[in-house]
């Protein structure tokens, strides 16, 4: 019997995914663009001349724990780890410093991040390969590097510190900026496009599913009514509208009332959950025996996908009451972490971003 996991079994809301795909296709057709699934060719990243690199060094969340969990997988000849979310290169820098024989393939969809990471990691020379790609292209990136398997894959999900710090990217609701939110500025659809073209029903669904926003319909209706007066272009106007659209009691609790809407728009613009659903199974399949997948998730939607994917590959179809597992039916992976690990109070004080992190790790134990 084939024990390869059926990934469709843990895909969430198949009809919802179809609706999201249809939504994007309508938008792209209306603007004479390719559908979202058609991307530009992958290429090894070349840094742009004259781009300033920030001296700031953001400390990655749970860094030492991540290194410790990857260490057994890297204790092989010629280890290779894919940093699927390279960002500013903090995890990669730490891995290369700690593991002298390691080679890292750094993947990021954001060309600005690749430019900054390459400058930061310049001292490591050819121990790093850079790929301008989305992480659901990991399998192709690995094959194009001349490899069939790797020792580890790291996902540090969500928006990067750099993207939050660059006001003109539009990710932060704390400052007025263009409503962009594209992780790859070469992609066509922006947050402003979503706000100005989606129907109230479509927008409400995005806010409810991706932002887990209780007042999704109120906010969506207010956006659609207000955009008739003038299209949305900057974040301050949206933040003000959200604040006035929700009940007064809700404004006084839970932090900035815009945070859930901004999360939802960012996920929609970048198809974050769809990309991750496709990426994680491919990443698991590209691991060599003993290889590990390490995932840092920062909200329940990402963590749910991780949990279901790991469950799919660490369980078998053998009945529980059978006293042994027949040959060929063994699980090919095991869970390294028991459930999701969280940051300690000390780490949260040192790095507030760690407050919401959920860490899960799976190891391949059979080919």
What number of domains? 1
Strand content: 5-15%
Q: What is the CA-based Rg, rounded?
A: 21 Å
Inertia-based shape = globular
Mean pLDDT: 85
Helical amount among residues, as a percent range? 40-55%
Strands in their spatial order, largest beta sheet: 1-4-3-2-5-6-8-7
Which class best fits the helix and strand makeup? alpha/beta
Number of strands: 8
Overview of the molecule:
Helix content is 42%, strand content 12%. It has helices at 14-30, 63-74, 90-98, 111-120, 138-144, 161-165, 191-197, 200-211, 216-227, 235-245, 248-251, 259-270, 272-285, 300-314, 345-350; strands spanning 43-44, 80-83, 103-108, 128-132, 150-156, 287-297, 333-335, 358-364. The chain is globular, with a radius of gyration of 21 Å. The protein contains 15 helices and 8 strands. The longest helix is centred in the first third of the chain and has 17 residues, at 14-30. It has an 8-stranded mixed β-sheet with strand order 1-4-3-2-5-6-8-7, with helices on both faces. The protein has one domain. The chain is an alpha/beta fold and 367 residues long.
Question: Outline of this structure?
Answer:
With 367 residues, the protein is of the alpha/beta class. It has helices spanning 14-30, 63-74, 90-98, 111-120, 138-144, 161-165, 191-197, 200-211, 216-227, 235-245, 248-251, 259-270, 272-285, 300-314, 345-350; strands spanning 43-44, 80-83, 103-108, 128-132, 150-156, 287-297, 333-335, 358-364. The chain has one domain (7-80, 124-325, 336-344).
